[in-house]
Amino acid sequence: MNTPDNKQLIMQGYQLFKNKDIQGLLALFADDIEWIGAESEHIPFSHNYRGRDQVAQFFAEMDQAQEAIQFEPEVFIAEGDRVVVTGQSTWLVKSTGQRYESPWAHVFTVRNGQIARMQQYNNTAAAEAAFRPLPASSQAQEKPMHH
Question: The pTM is what?
Answer without folding.
Answer: 0.86
